[in-house]
Backbone:
């Protein structure tokens, strides 16, 4: 039937007819369901029914027809045109279902509409012609469906109509009525089936009467509820509930009764009470006990709930309970155990006697619960000398005799009763009355103990230089001379030596039986007799049997029949792959014996296993069984049976047993398997396992050597069709062809070539040769990389004084299992550690060379070189490592630590010691990993990273102390980073396990113990950059290289949310859109905003990266400290706004600087840069930074520098005053210069003052220049170095000219140097004033500049203090000059005091000039001394604000003091100024010795003679 639905709304109808629909009516849907009807048929029935129905509800027929024609005009017109143009056809009867769906108002009774519909149908005049080709002959109402209360439908058939009975079963009859017809159901069938005439269906059978089932409902009420209230409420609920009650359509609740209530009692048990008219069987009261021990006719209350869940039943089900007859109380015997700790100094017998008296005197019976009838002491146990127990029965008490047998009688006594035993029975059984046990029989003589044969295996590592036979002989003697029996547990009766095994050459084991012992003959056939010996017994084989079977005593069965030919056979009775048999001559048929040889054999079918295969009727089973049973007699001699055992999983394994009267030869089994393979290969994908293992060339491999593995060919008679493809596996994984692995196939063989063998290539290899149907499989045992031999020699190279006849001792060693030898021309000694004494026979040779090489692996060797010298004196003598050496010789030695490889070098110094030692030793394990890191493949990347992590973590502490190990590990990570970013395909990423390995490795590198090693590496990187070595453009610094490698690796982390935490590194990888905020490890907060796309953010938080990265910024200032966590950030989108909130680690530091690591600074050395980052905020605990890019970030802080506005004010004003004072001073000196030249002393003093002022002026100018350079964002290092040099030079010149002035004073006060001319004094002054500073400044820059420690690391252009202490090159000379000047002043002051009492006269000019010098030095020397002492104080106590202010004040007033005390306080200067400016008249009343010449000029009478205060008596006034 084809279903069609046509729907029309009543509202649409009303609009079409232009009539108002009554508002209380809802839409009316009309659905036409038809059978193969045409358009005309469909429209006919719609219009016909609509006319009748709408007429009854107030619509005119014409209006209805008009409406429906209007709605369907297009269809009618087109249909009419079709029919008019065609030939009139015969009408065909057709039945059509019309479905009306009506939404009724809630206040309308559906029955009215149904009645109207019935009447409308009955009033239709039939038959009725609707059109030329449509006639309605019958119209019936069949089905009425109404919505029910459950929002479902109830469908009722009209009279004479019904559904099939099955629909009542499926949907349920209305109101569960049972009738003969199915005329009302709860739902409308989904297939749209409506009621049909009843004549179509048979009467419905009456349903099966409902069954009554009794159900127990258990209610558990809360612990905090009142049980009685809950039970009363439950009773009321049960009583008031009306029954019957429908639970579901099929289940009716007919009756509900409360039968049983249980409540907890005082003993934490339950007391269960039956309701009225309910009880339990009487037996329940007997089993559980009636409540309160009451005795009633019914059992209605018991102490517990039956375990089977049986509740109370109606009393009528049970007979009345008879009262139980009174029973006498039962007597129970109870053991009471008293454990008493008796003091060591107390006699236990005293306590036992007291206990006996207490028991005897106890009045009985005593009421305990009911009664205590008797109390007896039965058993006493005391500790004996062996820390065990000895238990004694009291009189008339004993144990069963068996107890004495089990535990042993005390003191091994034999008595008729067992009353004392050595121990307390584990079951706690105590002594009983003797009458309960019969007398003990004397023990029968002991049966001989059973004899058990035990194999004892001794594994002895015999030194290579020891003959194993000597040890075996000693063992034989020890076994023979051992006195037997020996007590082991009970006894050792005999001890015999049966089997000895020792390792022959090439690691082969040979096992030999002692006399009178042998193996079964088949052992020699399976494992091979020693040296292919032919003997009557099998007493020596080439290995130890895998099941550990040793030689047994020879019997008549031990005799073996000799073979006429040499046969070497290997049989594995436990596997399906029999080993190869090598036969050099045909064998006679083996004799038939009464012993059956059963050999389990298996082979593989490469298809999924199914248990059905074990069904004998299964096709696979039948074909395999047929091949086995057919082929086995052809190849197995004296075959008894060939039985298919089963099929098992693992692909599909076929297991069958071969049974024969003779030993089954392996070659025969191999031929049988080949024949079975040929039979079945076209039916199933069979696997033929090769007998021989894969061939490895070379057989033993070392790191980075090339390995070739050869597979095949299959047996010649095995059918394999061309072409053959090969698939190679390592440890179950397919080997992919890559840069390290290549595969070639041809001639029924395949070859795997591994270009460079590494540890990741270790394992079991498997080859599969396939011809699309069958497989030849060949495997290998575990193939392992050999450990690289580490050869240690002593000495590696040295020098000796050559003397004929002298011997030189050479030593060489290697780790197990290797042995070494010196090359054949010198010695034949072999072993893991050997020595060689070389005898010097000729001194004409300049040196002697000898090789120490590994036996069987001569590629591994090390050369020893001895240089023969004559007529030299060694500076370094007999050093145990480097030997002898002359001055500046470089000595070389191998690394001394076990497991390390490389060389050590040192220089022979004047001290006679080898110094400047350089250690280039690296762990062999790490070095091997480094070698592989540059030749990685995708397949071994995960295994490699795991091995790196395991090695680094295992050697963490050792690596922390080895900069070379750290450098090698970092370069490993760098190689991995290069590999994953440049070599690996774009789709390959690092999985989570590999990421965890990388982070764990990094964590192990950053531990606190590695801080010194990282400092060494960073210092060495600086030295290399400043030196002449080649520097890579990127990441020469190892610390910078590690960070760069991690940035490379994070870019290839798997794109998924990750949270990996290692001890010192935390990884968070998350995805977000637009904005992100996260707190990482509670030490760093990160906020990202405005990404405008889905972003994957990777954040690595390093807890101890400050151990690695130097706090070097773009100004090369390293006094800063990394004072927050280092954070590496990677993003998949461009990030222009990222904010960091760093927790401050050291609260004492200030001046935060937001930085990122710039790899390009300092020619690839790397350093912290603040470009694109800015400081946002700082509080006592955090610093907030904002950057416009992502990379590795942190926060630098510096030691405290007072930020005081007054300090800057004092400095700026003071420097201005100082500069102005110095300029004025120089101008004054220029003005009065001619006046000062007339007196030598005054002239020399003014020379000093001018140079002092000039030096300070130039120094201050350079100070301003240096401050400008330091104030730039990126400091010009060369300009800063130049400024520092000139500041240093001119400040020193200031002090040295003060020293020159003091020496001038000292010279004139104490003339001990003879007479010096003015020219010599000037020369001395200039040499001292500028030559001394030049020498000191030049030496300082020459020593510190190469190590980049000349200038300060704070950013200012001044001498370094924190690293090189270069500032001492200024402070020490300056303060030393201050001290010297003070001493000179003291000496001169003494002379001045002495001169006051002298009677000699000194020229006034001379005396006046000396007084000026004294006065100026007295003021300036302490002033300058205090000033620069305060400067040193600012370094020692940088947080002291007072020192900083005082230093700034003194430093800024130096020029002013020079002007005042050096120039203005000189009376002659003032007079000269007055004279020059004309502000006063010239006075002729002078008070100094001299005369006036004829021209009126004053002439000094003693300008050329020094004043000797020692001999003069003239005082100075």
Residues:
């Amino acid at each position: 039937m084809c279903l069609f639905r046509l729907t029309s709304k009543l509202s649409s109808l009303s609009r079409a007819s232009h009539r108002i629909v009554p508002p209380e009516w809802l839409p009316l849907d009309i659905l036409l369901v038809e059978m193969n009807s045409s358009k005309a048929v469909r429209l006919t029935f719609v219009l016909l029914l609509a006319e009748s129905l709408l007429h009854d509800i107030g619509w005119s027929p014409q209006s209805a027809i008009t409406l429906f024609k209007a709605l369907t005009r297009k269809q009618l017109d087109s249909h009419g045109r079709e029919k008019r143009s065609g030939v009139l056809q015969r009408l065909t009867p057709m039945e059509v279902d019309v479905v009306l769906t009506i939404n009724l108002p809630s206040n309308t009774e559906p029955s009215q509409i149904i009645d109207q519909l019935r009447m409308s149908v009955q009033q239709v005049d039939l038959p009725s012609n609707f059109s030329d080709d449509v006639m309605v002959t019958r119209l019936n109402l069949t089905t009425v469906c109404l919505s029910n209360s459950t929002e479902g439908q109830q469908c009722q058939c009209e009279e004479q109509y019904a559904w099939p009975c099955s629909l009542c079963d499926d949907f349920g009859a209305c109101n569960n009525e049972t009738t003969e017809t199915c005329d009302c159901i709860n739902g409308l069938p989904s297939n749209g089936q409506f009621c049909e005439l009843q004549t179509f269906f048979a009467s419905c059978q009456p349903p099966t009467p409902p069954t009554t089932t009794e159900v127990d409902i258990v209610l558990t009420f809360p612990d905090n509820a009142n049980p009685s209230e809950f039970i009363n409420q439950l009773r009321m609920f049960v009583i008031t509930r009306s029954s019957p009650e429908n639970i579901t359509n099929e289940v009716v609740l007919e009756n509900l009764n409360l039968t049983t209530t249980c409540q907890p009692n005082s003993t934490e048990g339950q007391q269960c009470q039956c309701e009225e008219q309910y009880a339990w069987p009487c037996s329940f009261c007997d089993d559980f006990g009636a409540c309160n021990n009451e005795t009633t006719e019914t059992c209605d209350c018991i102490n517990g709930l039956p375990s089977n869940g049986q509740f109370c039943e109606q009393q009528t089900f049970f007979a009345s309970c008879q009262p139980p007859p009174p029973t006498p109380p039962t007597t129970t015997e109870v053991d009471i155990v008293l454990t008493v700790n008796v003091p060591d100094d107390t006699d236990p017998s005293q306590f036992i006697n007291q206990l006996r008296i207490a028991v005897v005197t106890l009045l009985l019976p005593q009421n305990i619960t009911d009664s205590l009838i008797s109390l007896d002491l039965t058993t006493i146990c005391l500790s004996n000398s062996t820390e065990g127990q000895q238990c004694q029965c009291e009189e008339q008490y004993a144990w069963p005799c068996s107890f004495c047998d089990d535990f042993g009688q005390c003191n091994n006594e034999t008595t008729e009763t067992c009353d004392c035993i050595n121990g307390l029975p584990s079951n706690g059984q105590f002594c009983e009355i003797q009458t309960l046990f019969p007398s003990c029989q004397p023990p029968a003589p002991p049966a001989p103990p059973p004899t058990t044969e035990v194999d004892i295996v001794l594994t002895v590592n015999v030194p290579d230089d020891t003959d194993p036979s000597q040890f075996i002989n000693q063992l034989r003697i020890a076994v023979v001379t051992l006195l037997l029996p020996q007590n082991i547990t009970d006894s050792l009766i005999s001890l015999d030596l049966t089997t000895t095994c020792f390792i022959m050459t090439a690691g082969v084991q040979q096992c030999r039986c002692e006399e009178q012992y042998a193996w079964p003959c088949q052992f020699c056939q399976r494992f091979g007799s020693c040296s292919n010996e032919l003997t009557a017994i099998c007493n020596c084989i080439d290995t130890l049997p895998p099941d550990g079977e040793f030689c047994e005593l020879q019997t008549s069965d031990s005799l073996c029949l000799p073979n006429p030919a040499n046969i070497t056979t290997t049989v594995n009775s436990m596997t399906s792959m029999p080993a190869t048999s090598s036969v050099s001559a045909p064998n006679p048929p083996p004799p038939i014996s009464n012993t059956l040889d059963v050999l389990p054999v298996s082979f593989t079918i490469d298809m999924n296993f199914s248990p059905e295969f074990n069904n004998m009727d299964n096709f696979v089973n039948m074909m395999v069984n047929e091949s086995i049973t057919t082929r086995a007699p052809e190849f197995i001699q004296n075959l008894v049976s060939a039985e298919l055992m089963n099929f098992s999983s693992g692909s599909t394994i076929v297991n069958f047993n071969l049974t024969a009267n003779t030993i089954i030869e392996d070659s025969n089994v191999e031929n049988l398997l080949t024949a079975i393979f040929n039979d079945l290969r076209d039916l199933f994908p069979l696997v033929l396992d090769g007998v021989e293992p894969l061939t490895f060339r070379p057989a033993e491999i070392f790191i980075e050597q090339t390995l070739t593995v050869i597979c095949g060919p299959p047996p010649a008679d095995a059918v394999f069709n061309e072409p053959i493809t090969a698939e190679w596996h390592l440890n179950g994984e397919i080997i992919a062809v890559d840069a390290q692995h290549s595969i070639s196939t041809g001639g029924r063989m395949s070859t795997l070539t591994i270009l460079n063998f590494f540890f990741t290539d270790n394992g079991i290899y498997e080859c599969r040769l396939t011809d699309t149907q069958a497989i030849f499989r060949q495997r290998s045992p575990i193939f392992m990389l050999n450990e690289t031999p580490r050869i240690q020699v002593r000495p590696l190279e040295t020098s000796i004084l050559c003397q004929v006849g002298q011997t030189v001792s050479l030593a060489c060693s290697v780790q197990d299992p290797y042995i070494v030898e010196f090359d054949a021309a010198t010695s034949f000694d072999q072993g893991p550690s050997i020595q060689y004494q070389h005898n010097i026979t000729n001194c004409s040779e300049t040196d002697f060379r000898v090789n120490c090489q590994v036996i069987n692996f001569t590629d591994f060797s090390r050369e020893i070189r001895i240089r023969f010298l004559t007529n030299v004196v060694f500076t370094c003598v007999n050093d145990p490592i480097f030997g002898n050496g002359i001055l500046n010789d470089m000595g070389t030695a191998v690394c001394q630590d076990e497991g390390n490889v490389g060389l050590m070098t040192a220089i022979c110094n004047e001290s006679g010691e080898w110094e400047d030692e350089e250690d280039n030793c690296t762990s062999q394990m790490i070095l091997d990993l480094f070698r592989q890191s540059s030749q990685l493949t995708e397949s071994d990347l995960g295994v490699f990273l795991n091995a790196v992590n395991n090695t680094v973590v295992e050697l963490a502490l050792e690596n922390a102390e080895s900069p070379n190990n750290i450098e090698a590990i970092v370069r490993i990570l760098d190689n991995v980073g290069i590999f994953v970013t440049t070599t690996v395909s774009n789709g390959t990423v690092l999985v989570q396990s590999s990421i965890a390995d990388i982070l764990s490795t990094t964590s192990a590198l950053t531990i606190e113990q590695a801080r010194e090693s990282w400092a060494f590496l960073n210092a060495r990187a600086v030295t290399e950059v400043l030196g002449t070595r080649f520097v890579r453009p990127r990441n020469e610094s190892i610390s910078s290289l590690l960070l760069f490698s991690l940035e490379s690796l994070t870019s290839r982390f798997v794109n998924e949310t990750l949270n990996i935490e290692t001890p010192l590194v935390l990884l968070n990888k998350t995805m977000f859109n637009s904005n992100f905020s996260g707190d990482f490890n509670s030490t760093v907060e990160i906020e990202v905003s405005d990404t405008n796309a889905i972003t994957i953010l990777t954040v690595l938080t390093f807890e101890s990266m400050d151990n690695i990265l130097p706090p070097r910024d773009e100004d090369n200032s390293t006094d800063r400290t990394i004072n927050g966590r280092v954070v590496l950030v990677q993003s998949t989108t461009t990030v222009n706004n990222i904010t960091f909130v760093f927790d401050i680690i050291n609260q004492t530091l200030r001046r935060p600087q937001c930085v990122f690591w710039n790899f390009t600074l300092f020619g690839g050395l790397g350093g912290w840069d603040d470009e694109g980052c800015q400081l946002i905020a700082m509080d006592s605990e955090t610093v907030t930074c904002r950057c416009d890019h992502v990379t590795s970030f942190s926060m630098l802080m510096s030691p405290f520098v007072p930020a005081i506005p007054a300090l800057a004010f004092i400095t700026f004003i003071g420097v201005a005053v100082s500069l102005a004072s110095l300029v004025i001073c120089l101008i004054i000196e220029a003005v009065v210069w001619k006046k000062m030249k007339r007196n030598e002393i005054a002239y020399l003093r003014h020379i000093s003052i001018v140079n002092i002022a000039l030096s300070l002026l130039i120094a201050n100018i350079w100070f301003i220049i240096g401050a400008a350079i330091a104030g730039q964002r990126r400091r010009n290092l060369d300009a800063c170095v130049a400024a520092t040099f000139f500041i240093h030079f001119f400040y020193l010149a200031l002090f040295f000219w003060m020293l020159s002035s003091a020496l001038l004073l000292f010279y004139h006060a104490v003339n001990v140097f003879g007479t010096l001319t003015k020219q010599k004094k000037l020369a001395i002054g200039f040499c001292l004033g500028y030559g001394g500073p030049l020498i000191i400044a030049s030496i300082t820059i020459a020593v510190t500049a190469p190590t980049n420690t000349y200038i300060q690391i704070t950013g200012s252009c001044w001498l370094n203090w924190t690293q090189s202490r270069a500032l001492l090159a200024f402070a020490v000379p300056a303060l030393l000059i201050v001290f010297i000047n003070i001493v000179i002043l003291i000496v001169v002051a003494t002379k001045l005091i002495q001169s006051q009492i002298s009677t000699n006269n000194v020229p006034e000019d001379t005396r006046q000039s000396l007084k000026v010098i004294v006065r100026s030095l007295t003021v300036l020397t302490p002033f300058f001394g205090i000033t620069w002492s305060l400067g040193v104080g600012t370094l020692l106590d940088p947080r002291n604000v007072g020192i900083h202010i005082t230093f700034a004040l003194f430093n800024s007033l130096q020029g002013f003091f020079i002007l005042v005390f050096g120039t203005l306080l000189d009376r002659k200067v003032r007079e000269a100024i007055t004279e020059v400016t004309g502000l006063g008249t010239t006075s002729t009343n002078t008070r100094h010795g001299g005369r006036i010449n004829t021209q009126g000029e004053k002439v000094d009478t003693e300008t050329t003679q020094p004043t000797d205060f020692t001999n003069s008596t003239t005082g100075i006034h």
Q: What stands out?
A: Residues 384 and 390 are 6 Å apart (CA to CA).
